[in-house]
Write a structure and sequence with these properties.
The structure holds two protein chains of two kinds. Chain A is of the alpha+beta class. Helix content of chain A is 19%, strand content 47%. Chain B has 16 helices and twelve strands. The chains are: A alpha+beta, B alpha+beta.
Chain lengths: 245, 406
Amino acid sequence: MKKVLLLLFIFFYSSLFAQDALAILKKSEAYLRGAQSTAEISITTVRPSWERTMTAKLWNKGAEMSCILITGPKRDAGTVFMKNGENVWNFVPAIKKLIALPAALVQNWMGTDISNDALINAGSLTVDYTPSIIASEVVSGQDCWVLELLPKPDAPVVWGKVIAFIDKASYIQLGGEFYDEDNFLITEMQASELTQFDGRRLPKAVKMIPAENPESYTIIRYISVDFTTPIPDSFFMKSNIKNIK
Amino acid sequence: MIFKVAWRNIWRSRIRSIIVLSSIAIGIWAGLVIIGFSFGMNNERTSAAIGATLGHSQAHHRAFIEDPQPNAMLSEAIIKELETTLDAQNFVTGYAKRTVLQGMVASPKKTRATRIIGVNAEAERKVTTIPNYMVEGDFFESKTRKGVVISEKLAQKMGLSMRKKLVLTFQDHRGIIHKATFRVSGMYRTLNSAWDELNLYVQQDDIEKIVGGSLIHEVLISYDKSEDTEQKTKAIVSQIKEPTVITSWKENSPELGFADDMMGIMLVLVLGIIMLALLFGIINNMLMAVLERRRELGMLMAVGMNKRKVFLMILLETLMLGFVAGPTGIVLGDVTVRAMMRIGLDLSTKKDGLAELGVGSVIYPEIVPEYYLIIAIMVVTTALIAALFPAYKALKLNPVTAIRGN
């Protein structure tokens, strides 16, 4: 009887814990995204011999709707990637053509270390993974939860395991480690420079570092973020893609 | 009479004649071996491509040929009609219905564009030879759910191995994006590494489950023999209505079709170059023969041999050389190619380069009898042309000065 009780206790305790972890993850994602946001960002791809900076405008509403407009360099300016639910479109002004997804998916997104995967499925962490708290750690001066995220069976994700570092005070994700199925670290994510944007604290810089080649990384920087100006649903319509500025 | 004289003249300077004879024979021998080798290589490349990837012909929706979008599929009614047509043709040995989707394959290390081919493994085995090209695992024989067969090359590039997970992203006919996890259940390596890098195979059932319906974009058709594929394809085409389009392997792989068509022209060019070299060899030799025999030719002319006969004699000497050397070369070449056909020419050291071309590392040359006649005609013509100048030189001899000597 005692054993059963103990087992029950462990079971409840662990499920409680898991629930906790899920809540943390959800809160963290919600915080980062907000109900809606308009942001200006710059993406710098760094390679040992060169680097390239791209600027973009980002619109976001809920988990389903997002849109990215490239504003620089000139060569790519005007390119739009839009996601609404299951649909993804890519508008290329040079050829005045709307491209359905697959062509737009080719390789990594616009030559950065960010995969298209991340772009389309941003925010799938809570959907595709089962989180659990494995430790507490101090990351860049902040006390953080260390969450271990294991992919749910059949979840369409490439990783074997993701470790997320989430600030206990602000629920901001300050770091991430992406492992393959053999438990080798493949990519590392570091968020830094917590700054106030439109009433919210956000990391100003997010760095993606491939573990095998740390000299070649990508940094995303927030220039401005607006959480208040409302965006109508019609903004994320296919018909609007050519008007986005 | 003049034949006899010409024949004897040839054998008066035995060594020189043998050298000319053997240079012609070797030229022809080399030509035959090159032809055999090229044909062997081309045929192997073609039949490997047809077997592994192309099929003898393919059926698509017209829209798919213009732009391979997922919604350019063959409807069930069209497929029924096509099947009836194909079943009626006795040269059609099999056909395989496939789903073809452009998409993306992601591993933890890399994301790449890919062509996802959804197959019914059993039908596929009757039509293509891909199952013979497996290096690891199998071609959906062990009934694994959500297995994927990728090429060894792609596995290397993406850092994948057997049983590893990868995520496929693709759009269905309604434009909806699907993402699904598959596990590597087999790895293949065809002779065409460019194809390998782009294409991967999954089971149609799995795609249907994800998309929620059947999606057929392509029907691969194979014939009993690789001969007369054009006519056979035409026979099917004549019974097919729009929007279905049947294309032969030559149309589906223009570069292979082009290579096949260009082969003959290229080989005649090569032979032409060999003949050109022969031409100068023979001219040189016959000129020597004429100049060496100035006194004798002068004497013949002085005792009353007319110019026509002198000209003819020199011409005959050259032609005879050609007639002896030609068959010798052809026989030698034939024997060599036949021997090589059996053994094969092992070029494993150039394996990777050959694989880029879509050819295996051991090449089996082929005998092409049609070229024997072409070669024979070319040799005789060359000999004739080569004889003209020396014969003309002989004509120009003045009997009196020629007999005087020097």
